[in-house]
Amino acid sequence: MSVISQEHVRGGSVFKDLSADDEDWQPTEIESLCMNCYQNGMTRLLLTKVPFFKEIIVSSFSCDQCSWSNTEIQSAGRIQEQGVCYTLKVTSKRDLNREVVKMDSATTRIPELDFEIPPFTQKGALTTVEGLLDRAVAGLEQDQAARQEADPEVAGKIHTFLQKLKTLKDVEEAFTVVIEDPSGNSFVENPSAPLKDEALTVSWFRRSVRQEKQLGLRADDEPDDEPPPGDDLDTMRSEVLVFNTNCPECNVPAFTNMKLVQIPHFKEAIIMATNCDACGHRTNEVKSGGATEEKGTRIALRITAASDMTRDLLKSETCSVSIPELDFELGMAALCGKFTTVEGLLTDVKDLVVAKNPFVCGDSCDSDRAQKLQEFGEKIDGIIAGQTQAHLVLDDPAGNSYLENVYAPEADPEMTVETYTRTFEQNEELGLNDMKTEGYQEDK
Length: 444
Fold this sequence. Notes:
By secondary structure, the chain is α+β, with helices and mostly antiparallel strands. Helices cover 21% and strands 32% of the residues.
C-alpha cells in the first residue's frame, strides 16, 4: 500500500466515508499492465468505509488501447475469526437497492431457483442486490451464442432459466438471497441500522478445513478430514456460542452470546451477554464453569488507594458482599454473577441501594431515609476515589468467587483468602444436602 499518496495520510484516517461532495478525496492512479492486450493501462484505487461495516479497497482498471475494463473490491481488514452468512428475504423493490459487499470467497445462492454462484468464480464487488442479479444474468448470457451452436438443448434450458432470473427484479413474489462467506468480510446493508432488520438474518459459523485451505489459512497437503464438532473444553474456549432467548425487558426475541474463559490463577468462568436490538437493553452475567468447591471462600480486601479499584473481580451468583466500615451487607441474591472490577462492583452497589431504590424518589420518599441513603452513596464515592479506607469482603459458600492478586504468585499483603466448612443451612441453600452423586443408579 506504499502507492497511496502522503496527502491522503496527512488528511487523517486513510479510509474515509465515500462521498460525492468530497472534492479533495481522489482515487490513487497506478499505471499497470493490461491482461487483455498486454499494453499499459490505468488502475484507480479508492480506500473507503462502508457504514456499520469496515474498510474496503475499490479498484478499477481501464485500458485505452483495447477498451478492456475491470472493477473489483478487496477487504482492507484481516480474515475474521468466523465465517458469516447473510440471509435476505427480498419482498419489495426497495430491497433490491440494498448495498452489498461480496468478496470473491463468498458463495451466493437463491434457493427458490436452486441457483448458486460458487466461491472464487467472480471477483469481489461493491454492488446492490439488483447488481448481483444483473451480474449473474450477464455471466450466463456471455457464451449463449456458442452454446446455441454446440448444444441447442442446453442453450434453451439456460435461456428459460435466464427469464426466471430476470423476473426476480420485478419482485412479483418474495425470494431469498443467501451470501455465505468463510472469510467473514462480506456484507449486506441494513437500512434500519442500528435497529434490527426483520428481513435480514446474520449468522456466524466455524470454517471447515476445505474453506481454510481456499483462504490460504492451511497448507494444501493437509487432509480434508476433520474431527466432528465436539463439546470438549478446547472447542468451547475457541468459540462464542449463540442461542435464542427473549429480552428480559420487552420480551422480544434476542440472542445471547456465551463464552467460556480461563481466569488466571483461578478457574473457568462462563460469560453470557444479551443485547436487544428492539429496546436497546443490555445485560451480562457470569457463572462459574467449575463445580461447587468442597469448602466456602471468604475474601477480604483492604482498600487503601484508588489503584485498588482496577483489580479484576469475579462475583458468582452465590456470593454476598459486605463493607464492615459502612455496616453494610448485600445478600447473594441481590446482584447476579458478574466479572467486573472493584470499582464496578461498588458502583453497582451504589446504584442498587441509592439510584434504583424506589423509596428514595416520588411521594413515598421519606426525608430521613433519603438523607441516609444519600450519605451512603457519598461514602461509596469516597471509597472509589481512594479518600476513605475500607474493607471489601466477598463471602461465597460455593467457593466460586475471585479477586485479583496484583502480587501473584506472591501473597497479597492487603488481601486475605480464608476457606471454611459450610454450615447445614448454607448447604441447604445451595441444594447440596439432597444432592446424591454416588450410587444414584442403585435400586432403593
